[in-house]
Amino acid sequence: MRISIIVPVLNEGPHIGAFLRRLRERAMTAEIIVVDGMSSDGTAGFAATLCDRLLQTAPGRAGQMNDGARVASGAVLWFLHADVAVPDTAISDIERALQDRQVVGGFFRIRLPGKRFIYRFTDGLAHYAGLALRIRCGDHGLFCRREIFEKVGGFPEVALMEDADFFRKLRRAGRIKVIPQRIVVSPRRYEAIGPARLTLAFGVIGFLYFLRAPRRVLQTLYRRLCSRS
Question: Would the pTM count as exceeding 0.70?
Fold first, then answer.
């Protein structure tokens, strides 16, 4: 059961090298595919020698992930953001989860590093609110069987919440496995925008998405609440 890891990136030059080296140490048997959305900071050059395959495509995370999936050789597709650190046992965790043929895919729990209360609150909100609203986003390290990915049509190529849309389709296709081991998510964006503000913004957008608010409303809120002042 070969696992292909697909990493969509855009202007991750300062961080991509350390991320890929750490990922290779923890996923030695996996195929690593980096899909660069025409970065302007040399991301592709930094990544080229540290992954198994490098693609350069038009920017847009959903399209980048779909492009990576098309060239992947693995029977399992694992989608990762470039600002995370995966647990040492991640590959065996995925393999063990998929031994049950009723399981079509799954995700990891997440953890923001640091002792601040807001980060522990965010960790819990991301998990329990996500369960209640039946939403999971890309920083949870979504994975699935390749045939299921193709069956549901991959990621909808929309500007926002493409990962939540995909997760909904995945849930309808079969059982989802929650892996308790934590993916550690970099707090750099939280620190740049404000951890309380970003946590609140994600919570509001997720709730409105659950209520099927128009996409344009979600995009407006995202631009206003989730960008740097």
Answer: yes
* Cβ(185)–Cβ(110) below 8 Å: yes
Q: Are 3 and 29 in contact (CB under 8 A)?
A: yes
Decide: 144 and 79 in contact? Cβ < 8 Å. Answer: no
Helices assigned H by DSSP within 154-210: 162-173, 188-193, 195-210
Q: Which residue has 């951890």 as its token pair?
A: 195
User: What integer pLDDT is reported at residue 229 of this predicted model?
Assistant: 54
- By C-alpha distance, which of 226, 182, 229 is closest to 203? 226
Q: Are 37 and 9 in contact (CB under 8 A)?
A: yes
Residues facing residue 56 across a β-bridge:
36
The model's pLDDT over 163-186, given as tens digits with 9 standing for 90+, comes to 999 999 999 999 999 999 999 999
Report d(CA 222, CA 166) in Å as an integer. 19
